[in-house]
Amino acid sequence: MNTRWSAALYLVAATASFSVVGLLVKWSATRFPAAEQVFLRGLVGVPILWLLARARRVSLAGRRRRLLVGRALAGTVAMFLFFVSLAGLPVGEALLLNQSNPIFALPLAAVLLHERISWRHGALVVAALAGVALIVRPQSASLNWPALAGLASALFTALAYVQVRELTHSESSLTIVFWFTAGSMLLGGLAAIPQFVLPRGDELPALLGIGLFALLGQLSLTRAYARGEVGRLAALGSLGAVFGAVWDLLIWDHVPDVWTALGGLVAIAACAALQALPAARGDGGDRA
Predict the structure, then answer these.
(1) What share of residues in the chain are helix, strand, coil (percent, to 5)?
(2) DSSP letter assigned to residue 287
(3) Cβ atoms within 10 Å, residue 80
(4) What is the torsional sign of CA 56, 43, 165, 233?
(5) How far is residue 167 from each of residues 142, 204, 223, 264, 288, measured CA to CA in Å?
(6) Quick check: 234 and 106 in contact, CB under 8 A?
């Protein structure tokens, strides 16, 4: 399979997994604060990653530790802010705000990784985000704290994605994900101490699901960025709002209207076209 399309498929799998995480986080947010959800997510993932690394004889020590720490910090802040937004917003809207990260990922990838971004790539990203905006339309013209948290999570998500792309040149996907998961567990655990809630038995499946689907998403995400360019791949995250609309229908019986359906088609078409475009030429005439 073509490397570009392989990267796209991995990112779609990651986006689908993260949409399940969003659903479970939303469901459990009435009982558990965001910091504890971050901690429990890491608590599930760390031992699994350690066992996988041991089975594959992969060292988790890492070579570029400063960058690994930076990725862990950016990813943890992004996750915490995303969980905060989920507590106060519908799943689809929180996903929309978080996955508006291409707005930040494109310039970050161009500046930090020197990826060439053509005006066609930029136009298709805008089209994809416009489609997502039709799927989950804000119900109020005024911003609120959950919405601001969602937008801030997009910035830190973009920064984490750029660092993942750079780390894949020297680190295994297991090492990258382990540092992030362990870091989020440590930071989330420290922040959760003042308001820690002991889970009940019937809540454990959802909390376990958050950790497992987050781990699956992170592994798929890292494999995707090892194969493709950050700027173009990040736009596929807009499909998360499509998955969110599906969850709204299945769980809350919310039937999408015509604008939602149209937005989904626009987002999918724009993302597919973005993946089909060749890389920007190096002559400078086609660069945004």
Answers:
(1) 75, 0, 20
(2) B
(3) 22
(4) positive
(5) 39, 33, 11, 32, 26
(6) yes
| Residues whose CB is less than 8 angstroms from the CB of residue 145 and which lie 6 or more positions away in sequence, other chains included | 84, 88
**Residue 106 · residue 154 · CB < 8 Å:** no
pLDDT digits (tens, 9 = 90+) for 31-52: 999 999 999 999 999 999 999 9
Residues 219-242 pLDDT 10s: 888 888 777 666 667 667 667 777
- E strand spans, the chain: none
3-state secondary structure of 35: helix
Centre a 10 Å sphere on the Cβ of residue 253 and count the other Cβ atoms it contains.
Answer: 7
Using the predicted structure, report yes or no on whether residue 285 has a pLDDT greater than 50: no
- Model confidence at 1, pLDDT cuts 50, 70, 90, reads low
Note if the pTM is more than 0.85: no
The answer to whether residues 38 and 187 touch, using CB atoms and an 8 Å cutoff, is: yes
pLDDT at 138 over 90: no
What are the pLDDT digits (tens) for 150-162? 888 988 998 998 8
Phi, psi (5° rounding) for residue 287?
A: -90, 140
Phi, psi dihedrals of residue 100, rounded to the nearest 5° = -80, 10
Q: What is the residue-wise DSSP string for 60-120?
A: -S-S-HHHHHHHHHHHHHHHHHHHHHHHHS-HHHHHHHHTTTHHHHHHHHHHHS----BHH
